[in-house]
Amino acid sequence: MPASVLSTLTSTPLFSVGLTLAAFLLGNSLFKRFGKPSWLPAILIAALLLAGTLALLGLPYTTYQQGANWLTILLGPATVALGMPLYQQLPHIRELWRPLAICLPIAATLAACYALWIAWLMGSPTPILASIAAKSVTAPIAMGITEQLGGTIPLLMGSLLITGVATIPFVSLTARLLNIDDERLIGFALGLNGHAIGTVRAFDISPTAGAFASLGMSLTGIFTALLLPLAWRLIGVGS
Description:
The chain has helices at about 5-10, 15-35, 40-55, 60-70, 75-80, 85-90, 90-95, 95-120, 125-130, 140-150, 155-175, 185-205, 205-235. By secondary structure, it is an all-alpha fold. Helix 12 (about 185-205) crosses helix 13 (about 205-235).
């Protein structure tokens, strides 16, 4: 595409927003046509379509991001809206508050540490470590954590996508191997490890699974936001 035409199209946010919405709608349509495979969620299809379109148009990611940046504002309200299914399932949540309270800090800590440990063993520099530390946290919270740690947002977003996509088949396979059929536990595991992508999958299972996924995602975000920056400073990463 000629540079002049591309410059005109990207002069307003509408072009980037339109590309994003078109990729999402097409990705969701293909996801349903493929039979909703757990290993290929709609958001991954949409991301691949969008990346391919940007490459074909020769549109730099930074230019696209400037136009679509305001969409990130909607992430906050979308996350807050998950409080409704939490409220609806509050009696069931109260029944399991003790095991959930014990499980959460262990699982949330492991979710951050195993990725950091693998990256550290591979010799990754501090900026990469800072960018993947919050990979299991929902995007609005993860972006704030990553900025505090000195990481880069584009790398964070990539790690969020990979983590969310990988969580779905891993949780499904683990539940099958361990004969776990409790939708509350499966949903909590999906939300805790797979943030918003895992939560979307949990709502496909049932409203109960979705509510517990919302709980896992929310509590993981709060726990990580409070303790990860503190732990980062205490162990002296990047100092």
